[in-house]
Inverse folding.
């Protein structure tokens, strides 16, 4: 369902972008930048938490650009091992490795004259980052196992749910690749920063899942909406979408009422299903602020980094416990892929090693 937004500041922000829901102030800059950058051929770096809609913005940039008639190719860089990802991106020739029984066209070739969207770019290895840098700079590469150089005309849009400057500091991301990707950065606000969009988003998902499930849940109880607007939404729009879908399936009448919402929303001070809730984050943040005020020094990490890492570690530990340490199930609940979860478990010493 296409949506529009009304500008709240002086100046024209442009007509609505089809398929993107939200009229609030927090999305104004996103819409304006999306339209502005679409007219160029510049690389774009989308930054934001998991579930904030980075793929939707990437598609909008492509569709609004001169390349809109060409292919839009998505690659989740965190879902594949280094060797498989290299073959996925650049293709391979027959016999280049065990199992390569035929030549294969890579995603960069498939996106020729169009756009390639590299999601979770922070998951790529240093070796692969060198090859990505070359494609961005020279527009050329070789298939795995081949010596023939191929040239492509492909626009690159990348996305990350982590701060790439932090990754550079940890020597896990190349600084030169970062600056090549970060020509135009667009930050997508988390849902907790755009609470005035929750009613419209909920209505959109009600329509969607009513149609999919042949249901008629067309009303949103005021008390239910108020609870939604007060909730912290660690899983962002994707979490809201899942809760509305469940409510539509479980409803006996035509209204989404408070009893159809999970305890995470109705009682946010409690922990449900192993997830860290808003009140937990607030109390943990307060404790860390006190710690930082008393111990911070030039050799310490920034207070912000401490807070983020501590909260993320606690969240992952709780979700893993609630999922009986089944990584696939925990990754699904967290909204990340299994490879990313595995890396985080090792990083935080939660892998039992």
């Amino acid at each position: 369902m296409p949506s529009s937004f009304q500008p709240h500041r002086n100046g024209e922000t442009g007509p609505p972008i089809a398929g993107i829901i939200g009229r609030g102030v927090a999305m104004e800059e996103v819409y304006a930048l999306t339209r502005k950058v679409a007219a160029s051929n510049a690389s774009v770096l989308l930054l934001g938490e998991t579930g904030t809609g980075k793929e939707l913005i990437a598609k909008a940039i492509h569709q609004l650009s001169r390349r809109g008639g060409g292919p839009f190719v998505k690659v989740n860089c965190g879902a594949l091992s280094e060797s498989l990802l290299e073959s996925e991106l650049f293709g391979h020739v027959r016999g280049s490795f065990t199992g390569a029984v035929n030549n294969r066209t890579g995603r960069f070739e498939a996106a020729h004259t169009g756009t390639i969207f590299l999601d979770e770019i922070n998951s790529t290895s240093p070796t692969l980052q060198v090859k990505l840098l070359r494609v961005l700079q020279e527009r050329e590469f070789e298939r795995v196992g081949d010596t023939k150089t191929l040239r492509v005309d492909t626009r690159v849009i990348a996305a990350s749910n982590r701060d790439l400057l932090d990754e550079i500091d940890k020597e896990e991301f190349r600084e030169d690749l970062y600056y090549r990707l970060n020509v135009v950065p667009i930050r997508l606000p988390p849902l907790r920063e755009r609470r005035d969009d929750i009613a419209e988003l909920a209505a959109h998902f009600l329509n969607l899942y009513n149609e999919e499930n042949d249901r008629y849940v067309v009303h949103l109880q005021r008390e239910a909406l108020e609870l939604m607007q007060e909730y912290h939404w660690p899983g962002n729009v994707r979490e809201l979408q899942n809760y509305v879908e469940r409510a539509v399936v479980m409803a006996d009448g035509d209204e989404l009422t408070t009893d159809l919402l999970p305890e995470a929303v109705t009682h946010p001070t409690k922990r449900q299903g192993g997830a860290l809730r808003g009140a937990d984050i607030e109390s943990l943040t307060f404790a860390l602020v006190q710690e930082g005020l008393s111990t911070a020094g030039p050799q310490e990490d920034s207070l912000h980094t401490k807070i983020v890492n501590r909260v993320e570690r606690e969240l992952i530990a709780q979700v893993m416990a609630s999922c009986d340490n089944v990584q696939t199930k925990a990754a699904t609940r967290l909204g990340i892929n299994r490879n990313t979860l595995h890396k985080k478990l090792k990083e935080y010493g939660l892998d039992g090693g």
